[in-house]
Amino acid sequence: MSQPLSPSEQVDNVSQFFQIHPENPQARLIKQAVEIIRKGGVVIYPTDSSYAIGCQIGDKNAVERVRRLRQLDDKHNFALICCDLSQLGLFAKIDTGTFRLLKAHTPGPYTFILNATREVPRLLLHPKKRTIGLRVPSHPIALALLAELGEPLMSVTLILPGETEPLEDPYEMRQLLEKQVDLIIDGGFGGNKASTVINLADGEPEVIRVGCGDPAPFLVEA
Predict the structure, then answer these.
(1) pTM, whole model, 2 decimals?
(2) CATH assignment of 16-213, given 3.90.870.10, 3.40.50.1400, 1.10.10.10, 3.50.50.60?
(3) Strands 196-199 and 206-209
(4) Which terminus of the chain faces fewer neighbouring Cβ atoms within 10 Å, N or C?
């Protein structure tokens, strides 16, 4: 594990570290966090499943920084973290049946793979399927960030290369990643499971990854 930098070794590009209340987020710190995002910053923040890495959806440089940090190829489905279903509907093609399914399970610890609309920047799409992951979390800090930002966050789970579970401890995140991100939001100890991923792009629901959301409602009997 990386050792923390001594004060003499720290430089200007060390990330900021905000301690934000997980149930009653301080408005001042949320505003400062969103300013960092709008200026092209890469931010670690808590969700209702685990910690995630986020940035502004149209910022190519920030998205590429996230790709490098996670060592992701261009076939990885990024997720757009939305504040509610109406926002989600701007970025995905949703029929009546899909809407009912989403309404029953959002907000919550699920990421849904859906066919993207033209509102989604090309660099976030799966290159062949033109799909995008979409999620509506229930965590107060994530929702406060989204409300202040006024648009979705591009996001991926904070799982480091070579690991299978997300980082849980904000202080460990600070040790490992303070030179690679612009802000770490400490909202307390996080979960160690990512969201459950459900593919709704091909009609019948398909469970792609089992995480902390119960997959049972989406399992189709043979």
Answers:
(1) 0.89
(2) 3.90.870.10
(3) antiparallel
(4) C
Domain boundaries, the chain: 16-213
